[in-house]
Design goal:
The protein is built from five helices and 23 strands. The protein is mainly beta and 327 residues long. The strands form five sheets. Strands 1, 6, 16, 17, 18, 19, 20, 21, 22 and 23 form a ten-stranded antiparallel beta sheet that branches. Strands 2-3-7-14-9-12 form a six-stranded antiparallel beta sheet, with no helix packed on it. The chain has two domains: 6-220, Jelly Rolls, CATH 2.60.120; 235-326, Sandwich (Jelly Rolls), CATH 2.60.120. The structure holds zinc ion (ZN). Residues 98, 100, 118, 176 line the site of zinc ion.
Length: 327
C-alpha cells in the first residue's frame, strides 16, 4: 500500500476578471498581478498540473497513469480522457453570464469534447458577494434573447448571497455567473467549452468586446426555473465532521473537517484533496501514528494533492478542512 499523497503544482490563468486573493490568500505564484484561476488537478491538454514530489517530479497525470495505471483505479477506464478538472477561481470582477453544454451537445459541436457540469464550493466571499444561478422562473427563448440584447438578463436570474462553506451544483445547461468578491473551488468535467451570453458591455485590453455565443447558448440553456438545492447537513465521523457535497458520473466531492488527525483511504479510485483551512503535515511511511511531524510533507491552505488508488494517507494538523474529490 502506498502511504503517500503527491503534491500538485498548478497552472495559473489570468483573464480580464481575476482578483489578487489566489496570490495573497491561497499561496499561488504568478507573474501577473491578478490571477483568475489556478488549475489544481488538471490533465487538460496544454494546461496540465504536474506532480511536485521527489518520487515523480514534474510528471503530468497522463505520464503518471502511463507508468502506474494502478494508481488511477478501474473506473477511469470507461472515460475517453481524464474526466475531471479542479480549479481555484477568484472573481475580482463579475464573470460573464454563461452556460456550458452537456456531453451530447459538446460531442457533436465541440470536436468530441466533454460537456461541462460543474460545482462550486465557496472558499471566500466579500460582504454582500453573490452568484447568479439559473432563472427565477421559466423563460422563453425569445425572452432570453431579448433580455441579453437589452442588458437585463441578470434580472431574470436567481441572485444568491454566498458565504464560505456554501456549495452549489451547476448542471450543464444552467445559465450562471460567479460575481465579484467570490472565491471558489470549482470541480467540473474536464472541459473548457463556455458559451457567453452577456459580458456587461466590457472590453478586453485591446478595447474589443469579448466574443459572445448567443446562438449556441440559446440552444443549450435550460429555460426552466432553477431551484438551487439546499446544502446537506454534515455528519460526525471518527475524526470530525464530513459532509457529502456532490455525486455525479464525473466526480464525488465531500468536505472533511477534522481535529488532530485524518486518515484517508482510497480503495477503488484515485482521489484529490484541496486544503480549505489549516496547516499540518502528511506523515511519511516511517512516521508512526503518534508521529514525527517534522518528517512529514507539509500542507497548508490552498494546496492540492493527488492520492493514488489503494493508498492510506495520514494528515496531522491541530485543525483542518479539506475538500476531497474522487472519481
Ligand atoms: Zn461556468
Amino acid at each position: 500500500m502506498l502511504i503517500r499523497a503527491l503534491r500538485l503544482k498548478p497552472v495559473t490563468k489570468e483573464y480580464i476578471w481575476g482578483g489578487s486573493k489566489l496570490k495573497t490568500e491561497w499561496g499561488k505564484q504568478a507573474d501577473t498581478p491578478t490571477v483568475s484561476e489556478s488549475w489544481e488537478l488538471s490533465d487538460f491538454p496544454g494546461s496540465e498540473s504536474v506532480i511536485d514530489d521527489e518520487m515523480y517530479p514534474g510528471y503530468t497525470l497522463g505520464k503518471l497513469r502511463e507508468k502506474h495505471p494502478e494508481f488511477f483505479g478501474k473506473k477511469i477506464e470507461s472515460f475517453k480522457s481524464f474526466p475531471m478538472l479542479i480549479k481555484l477561481v477568484d472573481a475580482g470582477k463579475d464573470l460573464s453570464v454563461q452556460v456550458h453544454p452537456n456531453d451530447e451537445y459538446a460531442a457533436e459541436h465541440e470536436n468530441g469534447s466533454f460537456g461541462k457540469t460543474e460545482c462550486w464550493y465557496v472558499l471566500d466571499a466579500d460582504p454582500g458577494a453573490y452568484i447568479l444561478l439559473g432563472f427565477k422562473r421559466a423563460v422563453t427563448k425569445e425572452e432570453l434573447t431579448a433580455s441579453v440584447e437589452n442588458g437585463t438578463v441578470t434580472d431574470l436570474m436567481n441572485r444568491i448571497p454566498v458565504k464560505p462553506g456554501d456549495f452549489y451544483f451547476v448542471p450543464a445547461g444552467t445559465v450562471h455567473a460567479l460575481c465579484k468578491g467570490v472565491t471558489v473551488l470549482e470541480i467540473q468535467e474536464n472541459s473548457n467549452v463556455t458559451y457567453r451570453l452577456y459580458d456587461y458591455g466590457r472590453t478586453d485590453k485591446d478595447g474589443k468586446p469579448r466574443k459572445l455565443h448567443m446562438k449556441e447558448a440559446a440552444e443549450v440553456a435550460d429555460l426552466n426555473a432553477f431551484v438551487p438545492e439546499a446544502a446537506p447537513a454534515p455528519r460526525d465521523f471518527t475524526y470530525g465532521k464530513i459532509r457529502k457535497l456532490a455525486s455525479c458520473e464525473y466526480f464525488r466531492t465531500k468536505e472533511v473537517v477534522f481535529d488532530d488527525m485524518y486518515i484517508m483511504y482510497t480503495f477503488d479510485t484515485f482521489a484529490s484533496f484541496t486544503v480549505a483551512e489549516g496547516e499540518g503535515v502528511i506523515l511519511k511511511e516511517d512516521g508512526s501514528a503518534d508521529g514525527k511531524p517534522a518528517d512529514g510533507v507539509p500542507f497548508k491552505k490552498g494546496d492540492t494533492f493527488f492520492v493514488p488508488c489503494g493508498a492510506m494517507v495520514r494528515l496531522s494538523a491541530p485543525h483542518g478542512k479539506i475538500i476531497v474529490t474522487e472519481l
